[in-house]
Amino acid sequence: MSAILEVKGLTKRFGGLAAVNQVSFRVAEGSISGLIGPNGAGKTTIFNLVTGVYKVTEGTIEFRGESIQDLEPYKVADKGITRTFQNIRLFKSLSARDNVLIACHMSAKYGLFESIFRLPRYWKEEKVLRDKAESLLEIMGLQDRMDVTANNLPYGLQRRLEITRALALDPKLLLLDEPAAGMNPDETVQLMRLIGEVRDQFKLSVLVIEHHMDLIMGVCEHIHVLNFGCTLADGSPEDIANDPKVVEAYLGAENDR
Amino acid sequence: MNQFLQQLVNGLSIGSIYALMAVGYSLVYSIMNFSNFAHGSVIMLGAYLGFFLLTLVGLPFGLAFFLAACGTALIAVILERLAYKPLRDRNAPFLYFIITAMGASIFIDNSVIATIGPTPKTFPTQLLPSFLQSGSIKLGALDIGRIDLAMFIITAVCLVALVLFIDFTKLGKAIQATAYNMKASALMGINPSFVVILVFAIGGFLAGIAGVLYGMKYQVFPQMSGITLKSFIAAVFGGLGSLPGAMLGSLLLALIETFVSGYVSTQMRDIFAFCILIAMLVIRPSGIMGKTSEDKA
Amino acid sequence: MLSQVSDFLGQTVFTVYIQQIIVMTGINLIAVLGLSILTGFTGLFSFGHGGFMAIGAYVAAIFVARLRLPFALAILAGALGAALVSLLIGRLTLKLKGDYFCIATMGFGEAVRIILNNVNYVGGARGWESLPLLTNIWLVLGLDVVFVVLTWNLINSRHGRNLVAVREEELASQMAGIDVFRYKMIALVASAALAGVAGALLANYLQFLRPTMFNMGKSTDLTIMVIFGGLGSISGTIAGTILLTGLPEFFRNFAQWRLVVYGLAVIVIMVGRPQGVMGGFELTPSGVRKSLASRKARLALEAEVRAAEREGKA
Does A55 reach chain C within 8 Å, measured CB to CB? Predict the structure, then answer.
């Protein structure tokens, strides 16, 4: 299977500290992959590197065969990689509908002039935008909450809204940063199902950072384990669960409880 | 040669005032990651406090000076508690802080204009300590104004004391830790609220000293908060958030200004300051001593 | 015909005095609309928009008084001049943290004032008198309508929404494919151009120019109007401008206290009710609908949550 994302020798240094050190992995196209590791292992840093928020110190990042490591974040999103954030970064004072509507903006091409002077192209494409936002919200089960201010949504729905917003750009690769944080077991199961459905319905690949081992083991086809910025293990869930290094560094701690 | 040295002396004395202002501003910036644009108004209040404690209340100079600085320290903390803390608690966006600072600045400046009046006040020389009363000291062929010398010495003492405090005392290290990472230091038992109050108090204290010194050298007037623009530029020049940078930037800026003013023209002086700002932003926005940093996502 | 109407109105309802207030409000409104786009909708704070007004005013004055070109051209030139300068400032500062932009605009405002103080061709510090009276109430009101509509159109398009996104969450906007730098530039240039237009109109209304007219006090006056009206609301901006241009007339006896009250009010607004007078919503049919829909949805959600809780307990 071809790789939609290929990371080679990725290194990020902050001053003297290497937050990420020579990490290499592939995300197979159409797969749901996981990126796990203890806190501070460098997982979110990798997301930031891939999405262009941080500049790469060393190494390469290839997306669909194209090198993307020095692109600006908005260009990375344009290429087809979108993400959610560890601390939910919704447009909190805007409605759910507006959150998604904003993200749909790439689906219209009308320029400043056409919008200021309300030329026909504006009207046509604006309708396309609105319809797209509404249908996305419907698909994700948020149609009853379209007009609620994002801040007023329950936590679980906020997370779902953030995923909806990330889908608005028609991405090929979706990066989810701890989507199950703060969720109870029921919500986590729902989320697992949602991730699978999203992958199937929207025909994309997913890379998930998570601490909830049930979610990772239950939904990921491939897992990459980090520790202190370095690769610890890489393989299928069974491989990982049985890898003594992983058990010691990460899972072991959980089993001790 | 003499003119050169003379200009040097002038530059250093102005630079020391800029340095006091810039350091107070940079200190707050390094902890809170925001620019207290009301800093100038606090400086202005320091000048007025010093003036009135000296003339109206009749306190001896040293005491008036000290109390004025304590007064501004208190005002700075009150400002923080009433105007900034509520915003911080709500995780308000950066913009709200700037707007509130602007509001505070307008409120303070115009309160002074409305009550005390806009006419400038001069520190009466007879109330200054005797060694400051006569004009200048002769050092070789140089004429060093006594007030200028006093300013430079006072500033140097304050800044050295500040650096010693920050680098060598437990409280100072607490401030450094909080500047680095507020949450982590809180987890280590450092009370962030206390650190914030401390930092604003120190900044306010320095502002008061700067205000009185400036008022002594020039005059006391309500629009003084305008000079702080120079100190902001100096802070950027030296590196926002870096205290040594603020000091270095201030001295350099003042020296460049003085030389431009002396050898080119006085009008060009302020334009030059702005040009230096632009140049820094183009060449090295993090300033002479600043570090580049990236936001965490 | 138009002049007959205005003559009639002039003798009855709209005395010269009231007309003056209307014209000043109208001129301010154009500049404040620009600042609303920059600060209210995009979240950038400028201390130096007086400088952009000054550029517009002086360029227009040069066109009209020295080059003897038509007023329309002068206004355009003023707007263009301000816009070009803003492009430069934006390039240098908008990629950096917000504080740099604030300090740079502060410096810019001062620099413009100082430069103008020293250029005798435009009157220097003493000022430039006897400029022609070319601004009239109809021109101002007409431009007001035009700019309000254009601003409204901008805000209610994907570009306007992108501006708001930049204000709300820069990082998330990047993720949504928004070129944050480009949009900040758009906001800055638009606001500078509008300030330039306002400046041009002002010059040929007051018929004199002095650099102190455009100091930081002017910039903060305009910003206060945006804040009072409420960040992120065009109708709020209009209301704020009318309120704060007309109100000083009543404050005439307490002129010095006006700013004291404003300063305090700004703090109170920011701490208590940052949405300002309009509460962040628009006084238009769609705005009202939106506000009602939001309220309805929120109440429905709360009711559901309460019902679920009750069921859980049962």
Answer: no
